[in-house]
Amino acid sequence: MNTESAEKARTWSAVARRVAGHSLERSFYTDRNFFDLDIAAVFARQWIFVAVDAELPEPGDYATVEVGPYSVIVLRDDEEELRAFHNVCRHRGARILEAGNGSVGNLVCGYHKWTYGTDGALRHAPSQPPGFDRGCFGLKAVHVRSVGGLVFVCLAEEPPADFAEVAARVEPYLLPHQLRRAKVAARTDLVEDGNWKLVMENNRECYHCDGHPELLRSFFPTYGYTEENLPARLRPAHERYRRADAEMRETYERLGLPYALIEELDGRTTGFRIQRDALDLAGESFTPDGTAACRRLLGDLPTPRLGHLALHLQPNSWFHVLGDHAITFSVLPLAPDRTLLRTTWLVHPEAEEGVDYDLDTLLKVWTATNEQDARLVARAQQGVSSPAYEPGPYAETEYQVEAFCAWYIDRLREELQR
């Protein structure tokens, strides 16, 4: 058996050994071979959240994103449509755009000045011989689409067919907030010292939420619990939640806002979860007293007291959309033990910093929460890297972690069977 076959056999064995209801084995979080497989099986085949429409408001506006070894340009073309291309010159492969975002008239490679239009067509290639056919050397396109103002790309030749159905079910929840018209108030990049799956797993449960004092001012700590497994210490919070939930449902019904839980995190190619849910205290936003952080409401909604719309999408994103602002989270793998978490805050397009919102107040809760989670993820990475680590059982409240891991294992099986 050659080295490649032996490695595939070891990988298959680890996938086959995975015990439902338990964390993954050490190699899934630490080995370069699994990291490379994750890129091939997940990030190069699934729809990946990479940006928001608000980052690309005008023709020529672009953002670049790194997905494993791939670099992708997402831009608004001259017809104001979204486009995405591999950030690779068709001459000798140089990277075309180096900045994370900006605006261009054309895409000009800085190496030999090959020049492409915003439609990806090669416009100019200096010193080529007679008969050179520019039409054969356009940029390689990447699938791209916007879902209610959230921009996704797919590197696969044939994207998952069920994404259109998921988008159709999710967009009615998003559209009242008019995220396509919003503007970016802030964006942060945080590199976490842990495997990308640990970052996602950490987000999928509130078993650890005692470590988030700022968030728990407005976010109910009962997330993931049921009446049957709710501990006595959380009963008062649960009673507040029930009252707030009843009030919110009346508001959602009156305003015609969809709010019902849809939870299909595994058992399908594009796993997702969406729900409009109550917040504690004033019930308006992620602030110390729960009041709105921005006076101008998204989508000209009539009240800030709308709780939060929570959307989870496998494999790399989650979102909180409120009456006054929205926060998007994108997880991008850098190495087996390093992951980029990109967080973007969106506000009403006419909201003015210092007038309608204080930036520190807007960012405070999730900046603190992200930093706290980063420390927890680093501790988890240190632990799973030890030879003494062995998979442990999930608590009932960690059912979404199990759903994520089951979804992930299914993607690996599909890739290994190709």
TrEMBL record:
GO molecular-function term, one example from the UniProt record: dioxygenase activity
InterPro entries, alphabetized: Rieske_2Fe-2S (IPR017941), Rieske_2Fe-2S_sf (IPR036922), Ring_hydroxy_dOase_asu_C_dom (IPR015879), Rng_hydr_dOase-A (IPR001663)
Cofactor: Fe cation
Keyword Transmembrane recorded: no
UniProt cross-references to Pfam families, sorted A to Z: Rieske, Ring_hydroxyl_A
Domain named Rieske: residues: 47-153
Domain of life where this protein originates: Bacteria
Entry keyword set: 2Fe-2S, Dioxygenase, Iron, Iron-sulfur, Metal-binding, Oxidoreductase
UniProt key word Iron: yes
PANTHER family tied to this protein: CHOLINE MONOOXYGENASE, CHLOROPLASTIC
Protein name, as recorded: Aromatic ring-hydroxylating dioxygenase subunit alpha
Organism of origin: Streptomyces spirodelae
